[in-house]
Each structure stands twice: as structure tokens, then as C-alpha cells.
Amino acid sequence: MVYKLYYFAGRGFGEPTRMLFKLAGEEFEDVRIESADWPNHKASMPMGQMPVLEVNGVKIPQSSAIARYVARKFGFAGKTPEDMAWADALVDGFKDYYKEITDYYYTALGFLNKGDAEELYKTVFLPARDKHFGMLNDRLKAQGTGFLVGDSVTWADLFWTDHMTTIEKLKPDAFTGFPEVVALKKRVDAIPQIKAWIESRPDTRF
Which run of H or E residues covers position 19? Predict the structure, then answer.
């Protein structure tokens, strides 16, 4: 199989799939498109957006569909139907959270101007963080395995933990009140394939 992943020159919604390929030890072509070049590529992408995964010439859009496809193919989607459903739910939950923090996130990164970033951190980010990361912290305690689903890493862990990397670049102490989630991130980042990828990948803001 020949895999090509198209995404912007950042981590964002493309990174969980990159990490899944690294976990699986599977080769893929990491096609990074600069924002200035995106208009030249948009028409060739299904739904006019990225990420897009090309598999033997077939292009698959939508970040969740792509990551789920790769996770299922290589054994990182959950070991039982119930675990698979929980992984799906946790990624859906991540997207809910992401929508809630959008004004802060894109303003802090300089992509939008929705007001003062510090004020948005307090009024937009913190309520969403407390709700969603509180839930994650409670789930990890209840699980007792160190992972959000089952007893090993799944694609759901990757969506949440890589996002934490971006927020911690902006606010290093953003998640200190959620020790179980912080421990999950350390655990995921220490997996040998992930550790090697983090050390070698381009250092980007998002």
C-alpha cells in the first residue's frame, strides 16, 4: 500500500494520523502544504479541505475518518466493539471541545482576532478546559489502566495529547490541575515510536 497524507505545515488535525503511522511502523509520504500554496491545491482535495489521506490513489477526506481508518487498520482503534465506540465518542468529544475554544485558540495563534487573547483564555478556554479535561481526568481514574480506552494507546489518546502540546506552548501550566491527563500525555510521548517522532518532526506552533 502507498499512503500519502496531505496537510498544512503544522501538527493540527493531521498529527494523530502521522502518529498512528509511526506507532504502526508504516511508511507514508508526509506532504506538508504551506498556507500560501493552499489555494493551488484546494480544488484537488475532496471537500476542499485537509487533511486528506491518499491510499493507492484514492483520496479520503476528514480528519476523524482518516485517523479512524488508520487506527482500525493497524490495531489502535480499541480491542472490543465497546472500546471502539468509546474511542469514537472521545474523539467526538475532542471536536466539541475544539469548537468551544476556537475563538481563543485561533486568536492566540494569530490566525484570527476575536479580542484580547488573555481575556479569551479566561472566558473561553478555561470553562471548556475544566469541563472536558475534568471528564478525561475522571475517566482515567475510573479506567485505572493509564489510557482513555482499554489498556493500551488508541487514536483517542492521540487527539487529546497532541493538542495539549500546542496549548502548553502558549500556556505551560494550562493542564496542571488535571494530573491524570498530564500523566497520560507523558505516557504517550514516552512510547518509543512516538518519542522518536517527536524528536525528529518539524517544530511547529500548532
Answer: helix 15-24
Query: For residue 61, what is the enclosing H or E element?
Result: strand 58-61
Peptide bond into 172 cis (omega under 30): no
Q: Which amino acid is at 1?
A: M
Query: pTM here?
Result: 0.97
17-27 pLDDT, tens digit each: 999 999 999 99
pLDDT for 1 equals 87
The Cα–Cα gap between 155 and 75 comes to: 10
- Counting every residue written for the chain, the total comes to 206
Distance, in Å, from the CA atom of 204 to the CA atom of 6, rounded to the nearest integer, reads 16
Neighbouring residues of 97: CB distance < 8 A, sequence distance ≥ 6: 128, 131, 132
Give the phi and the psi of residue 155 in degrees, each rounded to 5: -60, -25
Question: Which positions ≥6 away from 127 have C-beta within 8 Å?
Answer: 100
Residues 60, 46: contact at Cβ < 8 Å? yes
Closest by alpha carbon to 72, among 58, 47, 53? 53
Q: What is the pLDDT of residues 65-104, one digit of tens each?
A: 999 999 999 999 999 999 999 999 999 999 999 999 999 9
In whole angstroms, how far apart are CA 194 and each of 74, 97, 198?
15, 24, 6
Distance CA 179, CA 148 (A): 14
- Please give the Cα distance from 99 to 116 (Å, whole number): 18
